[in-house]
Amino acid sequence: MNVHSHDHGDGHHTHDLSEGEVRARALESLLREKGVLQGPIIDEIIDMYTNDIGPMNGAKAVAKAWVDPEYKQRLLANATEAVRELGFSGMEGENLRAVENTDKQHHVIVCTLCSCYPWPVLGLPPRWYKDTPYRSRVVREPRKVLAEFGTTIGDEVDVKVLDSNVEVRYFVLPKRPAGSEGLSEDELAKLVTRDSMVGVTVLAPVSKAAA
Ligand code: FE
Question: Which of 33, 36, 58, 189 is geometrically suited to a Cys-Cys bond with 121, CB 3.0 to 4.6 A?
């Protein structure tokens, strides 16, 4: 635990509910009681932000970096500024750092102590990112955890685990998939997944039929 501990500064990492969380839960209960909210609507909205809307920001930055070498340089030099160019900024995005996955180096992101995550580019963190098994195991046995995500990284590729915290929040610039040469920036953005920007997956080659 000590090896990977990092300074988390303020109190937003407490496992007690914050005032905001308490208020959100109170509101949800009240709306359910009054019949305004029914079924899993809240979960569906959270899911949308977790899987679709949030990560699309990051996907746009990734696609732009693939087609524009100068943008890629800016992204790797100062991700906070580079994503601001695309209109993405805000909470939990003050010190974003983009790291590039290559044929020699694979990065995977974690917050070992809690759930620090680059909100402006990836939206809300998925449940597994916040859970203890991922946080503790990915540091000890990254290749094994990656395999559980269906990801095999060759022995010739170094795997580096980066620990996000309040000072710096990492996200991954995944390798551009094979077969994507003819695609436009918009088409490329649609290929980029949240998990590839956390580094737990790599992007599948684009089949000739789909391209
Ligand atoms: Fe954290």
Answer: 58
